[in-house]
Amino acid sequence: MAKNKLIGPFVQLLTMDKLPLMGSLNDSQLEIVPNGGVVVCDGKIVRVGNFDQLYSAYSGRLTIERIDGDMVAMPGMIDPHTHICWAGSRANDYSLRLAGKSYPEIAQSGGGIGDTVLKTRTANSEELEARLTERAIGHLKNGVTTIEVKSGYCLNTAGEIKLLEVIRNVNQKLPVDLIATCLAAHIKPADFNGSPADYLESIVKELLPEIKNRGLSKRIDIFIDKGAFTPEEARPYLIQAKQMGFDLVIHGEQFTTGGVALSCELGAISVDHLEAIQDQEIKLLAASNVIPVALPGASLGLGCQFAPARKLLDAGCSLAIGSDWNPGSAPMGDLLMQTAILGIFEKMTMAESLAAITFRAAAALGLTDRGVLRIGLLADMIGFPTSDYREILYNQGSLKPSMIWKRGGIL
After folding, report:
1. Per-domain boundaries in the chain
2. Is this model's pTM higher than 0.90 or not?
3. CATH 3.20.20.140 assigned to 78-364
4. Does CATH number 2.30.40.10 belong to domain 4-76+371-410?
5. 111: pLDDT confidence band, cut at 50, 70 and 90?
6. pLDDT band at 1 (very low <50, low <70, confident <90, very high)
7. Using H for helix, E for strand and C for coil, what is the string for the chain?
């Protein structure tokens, strides 16, 4: 029988508990336990509270993992949107953007997603596993204990299966949780002989049954925008995927509108990007259960406006934040730094920013077992070497966690 373990004491234990999923948040709503401790067993949280009181209550019936020095603990961060399974580099694209070329112009001239597709198709599984492992470990060291990972850089049946199997294999080897999403509908590949609608139909007939049979992913994503797929092309594809039992996710409103309305119509779990969202779409989201996901890394990588986080929150929407870590538009991959930057530009409270990378990010992945330090949930925690939780965002990503626990185990 597994034995209880008490971890602490923490100067502050930021639980992220008892906060609403939707709408704006004040820092005064944060539950902060001074001299906090967490009792864990079998990877889950058994109790949360004052360290000394927990120690007395269990009266020697546990092991102690004592924290020396000042430390603030909070739930492990969750990144609900990444593309970290790829080969090659798009440094040339970045240099062209600095010289004034737009994202669509670069794609039309042979760069963009198509360039990464060519390089990723030729990479073998061992190479892709090595690169994904390196990126996932880097994210974990920075405090991200759950990472969504998309396919979408092969755009054919065999290649997309290869990517999803790579994600599964790496997930089985590492302590971090990788949540696989099929993004075969990233763009229509240049070598596909047919219309965008024909390509989407081929995914439904050839790829999705294989994914379902092999248990490689429960999530389907599609890029709805200029140069990718229109809402009219996407609708039948998403309806069929939903009928097959897949959860829906949409890349929407990055450059043009259309994705938000479709996500609300079809009941997607999340709609991600939103840099080009307008007031009408914000109202639709506020009246829905769809989680908006802002991707400040893409704004930084492309030099464009941020998603209007303040307006979304004030309208009553939820808000998660993802890094969008990818080789083209968001190569940085530092979720905490991006969250801090978005927070200062959009005037988000610390409670709103931290919620966006913990329990609200979990909701964007359809996960209810993490993102909060609460009895019965996963004991995924990170500890920062400070005595004041406000230092985490104040340092804009330069203060990194010095201790990380995954399912109660110290890493």
Report:
1. 4-76+371-410, 78-364
2. yes
3. yes
4. yes
5. confident
6. low
7. CCCEEEEEEEEEEECCCCCCCCCCCCHHHCCEEEEEEEEEECCEEEEEEEHHHHHHHHCCCEEEEECCCCCEEEECEEECCCCCCCCCCCHHHHHHHHCCCCHHHHHHCCCHHHHHHHHHHHCCHHHHHHHHHHHHHHHHHCCEEEEEEECCCCCCHHHHHHHHHHHHHHHHHCCCEEEEEEEEECCCCCCCCCCHHHHHHHHHHHHHHHHHHHCCCCEEEEEECCCCECHHHHHHHHHHHHHCCCEEEEEECCCCCCHHHHHHHHCCCEEEECCCCCHHHHHHHHCCCCEEEECHHHHHHHCCCCCCHHHHHHCCCCCEECCCCCCCCCCCCCHHHHHHHHHHHHCCCHHHHHHHCCHHHHHHCCCCCCCCCCCCCECCEEEECCCCCCHHHHCCCCCCCCEEEECCEEC
